Amino acid sequence: MITEYEIIADEASRLDTFLAKQLPELSRSRIQNMIKAGEVTVDGTPAKKAGMMLEGGEEILLAVAEALPLEVEAEDIPLDVVYEDHDIIVVNKPQGMVVHPAPGHTHGTLVNALLHHCDDLSGINGVARPGIVHRIDKDTSGLLVVAKNDAAHVGLAEQWKGHNIKRIYHALLEGVMAEMRGTIDAPIGRHPSQRLKNAVEPKNGKPAITHYRVLERFPAYTYAEMQLETGRTHQIRVHMAHLGHPVAGDRLYGPRKQKLDTAGQVLHAKVLGFKHPTTGEYMEFDSQLPPYFQKLLDELEKQV
Hints:
By secondary structure, this protein is of the alpha+beta class.
């Protein structure tokens, strides 16, 4: 089903800002994508930019296709459960598993597995992301905490918002880092030209801070630990690439042709610490490196 809209601009504004106000059921990103695709006309001419300025009085036409509902099914997929009680469940996600369903990934996700394992999950993030308080990338392995009810979800989300969560990652980096430890304080925002990437953006980026420490040096790689002070999308991958040491296996932020045979970036969410959203007790979990990661380190050790 397609719904057509004919809107007369009643104020001076950016086109995407105006449409977001008029059509709150559509996300700003969806509106911007429609504009880029030439699906929005202003006074009979396809709008070229989402940021074009309206003076007021323009006739805006657009047709919106109804989004098909996303059905999420419970699937009997093995879960590595580290901890579980009535309020939360902590799992160790394997490399290659998507956290929640999205177009192109409707099955085999962590959420599909959780729906089979748990009787209840928080409904705050909707049908596609029940219980999901935070995410890690598909090819990043490691620890996540999931909320089993709304009260737990709110309690955990407040800790994330206040940057009160302890998150330590281990990564294998390209090249040999000169400094044994340091801090990267560099804002992160959307890459100016590549839609799938983020980048260090001093003017328009959001604050992002990563502390790093070298664990071991190899002839062409560095095994390092990173502790996040903030949690921007792809933060470690962006910051390490900005430093000149992209995560090994990262074909998005590092070289397309990789010397190591990996299924993706060699990055593991190793330590996760937070206060239990109900009891207030501090809890900290530490997961072992996955076999593929440890095997790479063992092979590199032989070269030293």
